[in-house]
What does this fold into?
Amino acid sequence: MAEETIFSKIIRQEIPTELLYQDDLVTAFRDIAPQAKTHILIIPNKLIPTVNDIEESDELIMGRLFTVAKQLAKEEGIAEDGFRLIMNCNQHGGQEVYHIHMHLVGGQPLGKMLALK
Ligand code: AMP
It folds into this structure.
């Protein structure tokens, strides 16, 4: 059994967050430490620790992350100018919270895709 993270508490609304969207499959809220003018996290309600743990039966959930990202980008007014969707995996990917999440970032030019240092 994977260990719960703070994101499970957010899904259950046990800790305060700026909740933007929730349905039976996914939850979206503002990142607590935004890296751009718009920075939203979209997560599955099911605890999937990393991209490596996604199963074929999760395909509906994974698709929902994208349709909600698209809808939120429109609502935030950043769809036309553009935005970036990011999902980090494990140590080399820079993953910090082991409950997969899609970062929706935008609201300004984002520069090159990778900043390796
Ligand atoms: P990652 O490095 O891809 O695992 O990203 C984890 C993200 O979760 C970071 O951008 C954090 O700022 C964000 N984060 C961690 N705790 C919270 C929280 N309580 N509410 C909102 N965002 C959070």
